[in-house]
Amino acid sequence: MKGLILLFCAVLMVGCAQFQTLEELELAAIATGDWSAVEKREKAIARRQAQMGPACSDGLVAICESRGADDNCRCVSRRAMRDIFQNF
């Protein structure tokens, strides 16, 4: 029972933790000149989006290319994927 109460308190504390939106972080960065928190949040957002990737239909695979800050993803067939990698 004690463990359940501690678990509930921990969940409650995490749920009430302060969360700043990206816009709030940007406003604070403009005021302070420290953009590290904004960059950290943008990297986390990009990582989350990369993990999700595009939704491809059956028989297709997502191919993503990163060029600087731009990530371009497209769906290709498995056959085309094999052809791409056999040429290397």
Descriptive labels:
88 residues; alpha+beta; 4 helices; 58% helix; flat
Secondary structure: helix percent: 55-70%
Overall shape: it is flat
**Order of helices and strands, N to C?**
HHHEEH
- What share of residues are in beta strands? 15-25%
Structural class: alpha+beta
For the termini, the CA-CA separation is 60 Å
Q: Biggest sheet: strands, sense, closure?
A: 2 strands, antiparallel
> Using DSSP, what is the number of strands?
2
Poorly predicted segments: none
Q: What value does the average pLDDT take?
A: 81
Strand order of the largest sheet: 1-2
Structural account:
There is one protein chain. With 88 residues, the protein is of the alpha+beta class. It is built from four helices and two strands. The chain has a two-stranded antiparallel sheet with strand order 1-2. A hairpin with a 2-residue loop joins strand 1 and strand 2. Helix 2 runs antiparallel to helix 3. The chain is flat and about 55 Å long. The model has no long low-confidence stretch (mean pLDDT 81).
